[in-house]
Design the sequence.
């Protein structure tokens, strides 16, 4: 192998067909309200944690549904569970249980 | 003569088995208690007073079923007739057998089947004042007593409403077997004794002899095998009942006794499953009282109530969703005739569920405004009162604004800890079972409070209030704002002018049942309003349905619970619905036809000239009020 | 009492106008290009948001036409020429009609999805339009891929030919959003194991029960809504289609293979309206649809005396609004006839 | 795939291509990359078709490479292009034909700019006049050399010439056509067949008997992208793009790739080597890579020109398997000989991408 000083880069595209969607499937099965999200961002705007540190719950569970879970484990640990997100959600997404369910899914998928 | 017959064996073996099984369970539970609890237990047994008290409770609860009586007399009578009646049958039968045998020590089956062995002495009805006659009368009376309970139990299956129960617990197969045996025991005894008395023409009391004579008249029989076979039947159902008992809800009978001793020894539920939890789980009689009081019914959720959850614990299978399907409102705990800590059991299970999960709040150090940052924000180091609004209060800004006005009006030197938004108090994590993780948040908030130098911490959110009190170990006084404002009013620091008509007060779960604060908000409200009666209030108040304790309820289910709670609250047409929790307020507000206001808002509205506070804590006039 | 009103176009707007006019005693002639009246609605299977059969609505309109309405089908208007006191209508088959009162209810055309070249309609067999899907539903056929297989994944593409400067249409076609949601539900009803992915820019659930339908699609039918406009389609060797879009809610480009793509084609100004506009000198909006005399206060009149507009000739409209608009036109016609000299 | 649908779109993108009297401008880089191509174009035009193709040695770069690398301002570029037009005008020609795709795109971009902003054109005329004293007419027709070959594809593929058909199986060869980004992506109407389904190379392949592969990443850039390659820190982008294309086309088993841009064949050819050295992966049959041709080279092959005269020996990916498939004769011994018949030396064998061994 020759070292060229550069190399093939990872594709930034979400490849839905190839991504591992086990966490998404577990989440959708056990907390189907996540399907009701309309991406309004109320949850993230209200979030006690997101106010202080980079943590976007809306984006996080959207990414999960697309099978993008690379940074998930690190991110999800920041949640304080205060429940403000759930209180402002216009669609009644059960966000605290979303987090618990993701945690469980992470345990199960290893 | 030898008082033995083969038919006693089923009973006898069953009895040996059940005694062994109960003994084994008790041994295991006691062994698995934490060491400190074992010490408590042994200490208690050195104090006769405690033992007597415990025994007293065993009598009032396990035999007389006092709490059941309080709930519904018919229900109480039914339970009492079984428990007390059977107990007395055993005691009196034993005495009776001693009379006959002349000995204090008899085989255990002898008193039970006494009428099989003794039927040769002629005692006629009016000889009740003789010793055997008295016993025969008494034993028949007790049998009748138990049978009356049995009739009620049968009626209850069809007409549970007469017993104050809208719903009853669903049965499992083992329960059905055991229940059938239990129900058959006393009719079998009646038949065996009656047929024997009829066959021999003597030996029965007013009930059994009359019934026996009647049978002989209606369909005379000559074979002694007919009553004999009935003794077999009696023994069999008894034996079967004993053998199945450890595996059915009837295990609650012996377990409750032990549990009462545990409680009198000062043993309390722990964070993790222990022998005490086992005793609580097995002490559940599945009477179903908790089903009716559970707000989940209003949302059509019928499989997550405490009785089912506890049954699941016993069967070692609780679906994750059921563990999380509980408001933790404490209503079932309040109503439980056995006094089980239903919420604690639920939390123990939740802790187990998340035990492997981690959280990372290291960002707190860098991102959140810590105590050091407080300094740089020019917040006075010596404040009288540290005010912690809570996460939820940030969604009800009227509460925060009112609190600021009230404190300014009272001339208090205060500081708001979470002006830019809160670091959560930690209780929401704890109700998810993440106690250890919550401690990081608690540590942060604790430092925040200490940094202010305040000696009083006031919070607007009962959830925060509860955790500050129970788990923070803060060296400062902690008040919910209803208590705090009441003190201000009492000391004349805030004058109240306006008076509102017809206000209904809703007890937030974490403030009322959770923290025992029922009176302060009521006393405060009566100073500014006419309180209307609420059908179910205080200890029995309905949860608003917005609880953070529940995870798996859908929004529609929450709405249904809120609607049901509102129905009760608005029964007497209040003009305003008052509460003392931002979460209750927000939950009710979206459905309530009348305005929903926090106590602080009402007080603020009642003040003659509200001081308008500025938006930020720094520039408010706190300094000028410093005493 | 008044006679000789001509309605050009026998779609639902023309039918509703004719029914209302004949009910108040006016004689109406409807000229329809196709063999049967009903317009585009004849091609639809079920209507949003209630999923009732389109045929029921047409049957209702047909029944309500009344005795005073004459419908001439299979006739195409070539030009309309103003004459003193009225208008002469020249049909392509040589027939000539004269009238003092004319209602233009010529409707709209569906956007030709081939113009959105990068979506591959007409090139990739597994790319179809929402109209094609309606046809499948209406004929009671199974939704299949070009190879006859049951699709496991279907992509529904919103805003095809609408809100797109690149095809010259910057306006919104209004009904495609809810049509997409309706069709997603219908596919799920037909194929419970089929996953649906809807690619949208906004979901404009503007009318009553629309949002509820959207909610139902998410809650009950688990339709996946992905916010992002489709950039391009490409074909796999097995004829499945790769969709490329940005998932704007995650900020990542997204690549997804589906077995079937449904393009929600929007409204474009009708070709027949364009012809007539030329000969009559009616005003068009920047979107190419005809303009009424005043959008707020005279929404069914034109600046020409005795010429009225009904329905989607004025721009995208749903069935409910189109029928209401047809009836509103009838009122305008009645007022005009009553006050003008034409009334004799 | 419904070819009828494509024909429908191609109908909308018909463009006028001049038939004779071409003012031909070469590319800055092609003579280094694929030295035989431009020579072959002139040979075909003059010898086979008998056309008038004029070249002016005073012609310079259009500066497109600098423009697209953000180092030459647009004003400068426009002035340089104006000078090319002046050369054309002075030579008495009005059909402008470029060898380079980027030049082609740039000429169109400038002409469109001038069309919409006549004041800009006036200013550029002023600049040119002040700098060189020259004036110019705008060309009547701007075409890319591939347009011209496309126009004469029938003549080139005349009966008796080679066809893109496997000699062994008689089946059409499977061809990937790759169009330079600047050909029609900016102005779809300026390219034959438009931007989505360009027809310029497809038309040649179809005419000469091959079949075109429509693979998912056909629209994707070859990876050159000017700054992506020219700035070394960005080269990861460049090679990632190329890899994406190859991964996408590989399942279709193309026999070769046809291109019409200076950069594309260079990168599609050379990056196959770089990828094999980086990742150990090769594409095409037997680890020999997928041959990449320019349209002039292909036209020359069809016409039966000696492959070594076309310059096919400087390709990284060996073309011999393709020549064998079609049945084009060649002398392997002449591959690495100078024009004097002396050995010119041979490249070292790569670790993964195989050398072709003639049997």
Sequence:
């Amino acid at each position: 192998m020759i070292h060229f000083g550069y190399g093939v880069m990872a594709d930034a595209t979400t490849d839905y067909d190839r991504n591992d969607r086990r966490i998404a499937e577990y989440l959708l099965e056990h907390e189907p309200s996540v399907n009701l999200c309309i991406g309004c961002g109320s949850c993230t705007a209200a979030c006690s944690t997101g106010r202080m540190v980079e943590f976007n719950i809306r984006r996080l569970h959207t990414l999960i549904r697309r099978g993008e879970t690379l940074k998930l484990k690190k991110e999800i640990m920041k949640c304080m569970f205060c429940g403000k997100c759930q209180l402002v959600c216009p669609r009644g997404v059960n966000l605290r249980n979303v987090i618990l369910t993701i945690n469980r899914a992470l345990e199960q998928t290893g | 003569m030898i008082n033995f017959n083969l038919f006693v064996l089923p009973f006898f073996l069953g009895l040996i088995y059940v005694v062994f099984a109960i003994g084994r369970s008790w041994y295991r539970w006691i062994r698995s208690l934490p060491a400190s609890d074992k010490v408590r237990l042994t200490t208690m047994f050195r104090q006769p007073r405690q033992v007597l008290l415990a025994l007293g409770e065993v009598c009032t609860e396990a035999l007389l079923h006092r709490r059941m009586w309080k709930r519904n007399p018919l229900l109480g009578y039914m339970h009492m007739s079984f428990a007390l009646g059977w107990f007395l049958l055993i005691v009196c039968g034993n005495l009776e057998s001693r009379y006959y045998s002349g000995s204090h020590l008899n085989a255990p089956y002898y008193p039970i089947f006494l009428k099989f062995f003794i039927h040769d002495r002629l005692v006629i009805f009016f000889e009740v004042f003789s010793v055997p006659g008295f016993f025969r009368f008494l034993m028949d009376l007790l049998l009748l007593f138990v049978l009356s309970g049995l009739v009620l139990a049968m009626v209850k299956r069809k007409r549970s409403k007469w017993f104050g129960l809208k719903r009853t617990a669903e049965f499992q197969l083992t329960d059905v077997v055991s229940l059938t045996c239990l129900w058959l025991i006393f009719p079998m005894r009646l038949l065996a004794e009656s047929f024997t008395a009829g066959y021999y023409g003597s030996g029965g009391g007013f009930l059994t002899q009359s019934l026996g004579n009647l049978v002989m008249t209606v369909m005379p029989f000559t074979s002694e095998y007919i009553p004999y076979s009935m003794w077999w039947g009696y023994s069999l159902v008894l034996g079967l009942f004993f053998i199945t008992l450890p595996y059915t809800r009837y295990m609650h009978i012996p377990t409750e006794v032990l549990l009462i001793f545990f409680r009198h020894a000062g043993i309390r539920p722990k964070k993790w499953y222990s022998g005490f939890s086992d005793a609580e789980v097995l002490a559940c009689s599945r009477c179903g009282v908790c089903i009716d009081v559970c707000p989940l019914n209003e949302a059509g959720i019928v499989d997550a109530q405490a009785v089912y959850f506890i049954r699941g614990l016993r069967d070692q299978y609780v679906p994750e969703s059921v563990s999380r399907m509980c408001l933790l409102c404490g209503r079932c705990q309040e109503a439980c005739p056995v006094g089980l800590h239903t919420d604690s059991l639920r939390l123990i299970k939740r802790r187990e569920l998340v035990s492997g999960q981690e959280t990372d709040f290291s960002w707190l150090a860098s991102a959140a405004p810590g105590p050091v940052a407080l300094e740089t924000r020019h917040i006075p180091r010596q404040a009288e009162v540290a005010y912690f609004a809570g996460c939820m209060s940030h969604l009800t800004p009227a509460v925060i604004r009112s609190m600021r006005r009230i404190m300014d009006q009272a001339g208090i030197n205060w500081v708001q800890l979470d002006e830019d938004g809160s670091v959560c108090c930690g209780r929401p994590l704890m109700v998810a079972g993440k106690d250890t993780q919550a401690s990081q948040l608690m540590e942060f908030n604790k430092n925040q409070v200490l940094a202010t130098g305040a000696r009083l911490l006031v919070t607007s959110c009962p959830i925060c209030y509860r955790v500050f009190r129970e788990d923070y170990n803060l060296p400062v006084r902690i008040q919910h704002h209803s208590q705090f404002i009441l003190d201000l009013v009492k000391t004349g620091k805030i004058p109240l002018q306006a008076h509102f008509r017809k206000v209904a007060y809703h007890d937030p779960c974490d403030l009322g049942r959770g923290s025992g604060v029922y009176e302060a908000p009521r006393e405060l409200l009566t100073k500014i309003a006419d309180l209307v009666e609420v059908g179910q209030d205080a200890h029995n108040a309905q949860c608003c349905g917005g609880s953070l304790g529940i995870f798996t309820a859908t929004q529609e289910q929450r709405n249904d619970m809120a609607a049901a709670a509102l129905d009760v609250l608005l029964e007497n047409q209040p003009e305003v619905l008052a509460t003392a929790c931002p979460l209750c307020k927000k939950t009710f507000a979206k459905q309530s036809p009348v305005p929903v206001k926090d106590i602080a808002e009402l007080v603020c509205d009642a003040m003659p000239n509200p001081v308008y506070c500025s938006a930020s804590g720094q520039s408010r006039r706190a300094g000028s009020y410093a005493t | 009492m008044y006679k000789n009103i001509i309605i050009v176009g026998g779609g639902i707007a023309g039918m509703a106008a004719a029914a209302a006019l004949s009910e108040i005693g006016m004689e109406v002639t409807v000229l329809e290009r196709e063999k049967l009246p009903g317009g585009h609605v004849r091609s639809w299977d079920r209507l949003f948001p209630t999923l009732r059969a389109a045929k029921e609505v047409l049957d209702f309109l047909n029944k309500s036409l009344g005795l005073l309405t004459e419908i001439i089908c299979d006739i195409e208007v070539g030009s309309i020429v103003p004459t003193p006191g009225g208008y002469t209508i020249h049909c392509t088959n040589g027939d000539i009609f004269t009238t003092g009162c004319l209602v233009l209810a010529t409707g709209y055309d569906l956007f030709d999805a081939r113009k959105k070249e990068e979506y591959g309609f007409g090139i990739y067999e597994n790319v179809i339009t929402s109209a094609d899907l309606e046809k499948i539903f209406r004929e009671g056929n199974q939704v299949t891929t070009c190879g006859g297989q049951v699709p496991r994944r279907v992509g529904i593409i919103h805003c095809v030919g609408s809100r797109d400067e690149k095809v010259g249409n910057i306006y919104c076609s209004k009904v495609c959003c809810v049509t997409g949601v309706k069709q997603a539900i219908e596919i799920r009803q037909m194929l419970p194991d089929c996953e649906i992915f809807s690619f949208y820019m906004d979901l404009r659930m503007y009318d009553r029960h629309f949002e509820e339908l959207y909610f139902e699609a998410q809650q009950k039918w688990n339709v996946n809504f992905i916010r992002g406009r489709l950039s391009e389609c490409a074909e796999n060797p097995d004829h499945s289609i790769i969709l490329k879009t940005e998932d704007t809610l995650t900020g990542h480009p997204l690549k997804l293979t589906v077995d079937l793509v449904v393009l929600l084609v929007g409204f474009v100004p009708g070709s027949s309206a364009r012809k007539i506009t030329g000969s009559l000198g009616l005003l068009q909006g920047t979107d190419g649809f005809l303009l009424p005399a005043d959008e707020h206060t005279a929404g069914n009149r034109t600046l020409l005396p005795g010429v009225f507009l009904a329905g989607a000739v004025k721009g995208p409209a749903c069935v409910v609004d189109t029928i209401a608009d047809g009836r509103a036109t009838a009122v305008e016609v009645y007022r005009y006839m009553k006050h003008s000299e034409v009334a004799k | 795939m419904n070819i009828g649908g494509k024909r429908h779109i191609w109908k909308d993108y018909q463009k006028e291509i001049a038939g004779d009297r071409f003012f031909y401008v070469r590319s800055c880089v092609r003579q280094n990359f694929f030295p035989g191509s431009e020579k072959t174009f002139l040979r075909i035009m003059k010898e086979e078709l008998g056309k008038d193709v004029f070249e002016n040695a005073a012609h310079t770069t259009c500066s497109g490479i600098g423009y697209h690398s953000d180092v030459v301002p647009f004003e400068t570029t426009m002035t340089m292009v104006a000078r090319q037009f002046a050369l054309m005008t002075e030579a008495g020609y009005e059909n402008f034909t470029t060898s380079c795709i980027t030049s082609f795109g740039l000429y169109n971009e400038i002409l469109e700019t001038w069309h919409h902003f006549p004041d800009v054109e006036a200013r550029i005329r002023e600049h040119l006049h002040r700098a060189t004293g020259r004036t110019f007419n705008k060309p009547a027709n701007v075409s890319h050399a591939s347009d011209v070959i496309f126009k004469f594809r029938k003549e080139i593929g005349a009966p008796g010439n080679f066809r893109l058909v496997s000699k062994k199986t008689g089946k059409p060869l499977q061809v990937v056509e790759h169009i330079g980004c600047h050909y029609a992506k900016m102005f779809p109407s300026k390219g034959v067949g438009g931007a989505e389904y360009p027809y310029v190379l497809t038309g040649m392949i179809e005419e000469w008997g091959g079949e075109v592969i429509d693979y998912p990443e056909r629209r994707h850039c070859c990876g050159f992208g000017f700054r992506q390659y020219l700035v070394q820190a960005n080269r990861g982008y460049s090679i990632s793009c190329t890899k994406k294309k190859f991964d996408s086309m590989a399942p279709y088993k193309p026999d070769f790739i046809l291109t019409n841009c200076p950069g594309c064949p260079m990168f599609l050819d050379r990056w196959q080597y770089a990828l094999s050295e980086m990742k150990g992966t090769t594409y095409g049959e037997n680890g020999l890579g997928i041959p990449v041709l320019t349209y002039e080279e292909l036209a020359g092959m069809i016409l039966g020109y000696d492959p070594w005269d076309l310059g096919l020996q400087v390709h990284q990916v060996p073309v011999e398997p393709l020549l064998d498939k079609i049945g084009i004769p060649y002398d392997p011994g002449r591959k690495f000989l100078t024009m004097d018949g002396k050995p010119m030396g041979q490249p070292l064998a790569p670790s993964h991408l195989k050398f072709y061994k003639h049997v």
